[in-house]
UniProtKB/TrEMBL annotation:
<dbReference type="InterPro" id="IPR028600">
    <property type="entry name" value="NUBP2/Cfd1_eukaryotes"/>
</dbReference>
<dbReference type="GO" id="GO:0016226">
    <property type="term" value="P:iron-sulfur cluster assembly"/>
</dbReference>
<dbReference type="GO" id="GO:0005829">
    <property type="term" value="C:cytosol"/>
</dbReference>
<keyword id="KW-0004">4Fe-4S</keyword>
<keyword id="KW-0963">Cytoplasm</keyword>
<dbReference type="InterPro" id="IPR000808">
    <property type="entry name" value="Mrp-like_CS"/>
</dbReference>
<dbReference type="GO" id="GO:0005524">
    <property type="term" value="F:ATP binding"/>
</dbReference>
<keyword id="KW-0067">ATP-binding</keyword>
<dbReference type="InterPro" id="IPR033756">
    <property type="entry name" value="YlxH/NBP35"/>
</dbReference>
<dbReference type="GO" id="GO:0005930">
    <property type="term" value="C:axoneme"/>
</dbReference>
<keyword id="KW-0547">Nucleotide-binding</keyword>
<keyword id="KW-0479">Metal-binding</keyword>
<keyword id="KW-0408">Iron</keyword>
<dbReference type="GO" id="GO:0051539">
    <property type="term" value="F:4 iron, 4 sulfur cluster binding"/>
</dbReference>
<dbReference type="GO" id="GO:0046872">
    <property type="term" value="F:metal ion binding"/>
</dbReference>
<protein>
    <recommendedName>
        <fullName>Cytosolic Fe-S cluster assembly factor NUBP2 homolog</fullName>
    </recommendedName>
</protein>
<feature type="binding site">
    <location>
        <position position="192"/>
    </location>
    <ligand>
        <name>[4Fe-4S] cluster</name>
    </ligand>
</feature>
Amino acid sequence: MVADNLLSEVKNIVLVLSGKGGVGKSTVAVQLALSLVADGKKVGILDIDICGPSIPQMFGIDSEVMQSDKGWKPVYTDDSKTLALMSIAFLLRSRNDAVVWRGPKKNSMIKQFVSTVDWGSLDYLIVDTPPGTSDEHMSVIESLAGFDNKSAVLVTTPQLISVGDVRREATFCEKTGIRVLGIVENMSGFVCPNCKDCTDIFAAGGGQLLATETGLDLITKIPIDPNLTKSGENGTNFVKAFQDSPAAQSVFRMRDYVQNKMS
Ligand SMILES: Nc1ncnc2c1ncn2[C@@H]1O[C@H](COP(=O)(O)OP(=O)(O)OP(=O)(O)O)[C@@H](O)[C@H]1O
Ligand code: SF4
């Protein structure tokens, strides 16, 4: 069963969640999408971070939303149309416009996103969410209530303070009936490009601790990679350009895990 007929050709939905801001949720969403595309899949990214949309910038795309005869056309990253994007940023006149909407207006925008975007056929729709468990989360979950094949990935960093936030996110998923595929530990050490040694810059073991406590799988640990930071600023396809790097290999493990669990 599907929530709406414009999602009728979408096979799987993956929500990317984190309890805390700045842990790399959008980065994980984008790299998961690009790695699925590298595996021949058709993918969409829905950016529901109404107050801080970052997906268009991560692809270096500045575009306006156009209408199709069915709804809003997503913005494609290239002519092959294998990766489609939708973000509030495409609806704003300028990237610097601030969104100061109260809950009900945000809710209706998210419901419109879910019901009005003409995604066409997709293997995966990745939903990039704001941090925490806010109005946006409730709205998207309510809007997707009729879509069966949906799951979540929880992103954390190795510090324990972040783990506490993600634990609350796991409880939220349990209460709202969203299946959690597992935990991604991001910024998990820094692999030196010279000696390939991994230094735990922040701390170590947060993702594993959370996994042990919640009984969820630790899907992968993505190290800090300066090229990954740069790709978020200049729109480079990181997993294609740096496919042999430890960070890209870790992203591929996440992709394979997600595909196995959702098949
Ligand atoms: N593994 C990594 N290696 C290097 N840089 C990273 C990594 N993960 C994230 N970053 C960088 O950290 C910053 C924050 O990442 P990102 O925007 O993905 O976080 P977020 O959790 O989505 O933030 P927000 O709370 O604003 O939604 C970005 O500059 C991004 O490029
Ligand atoms: S980890 Fe090794 S190679 Fe890298 S900066 Fe430190 S000493 Fe140099």
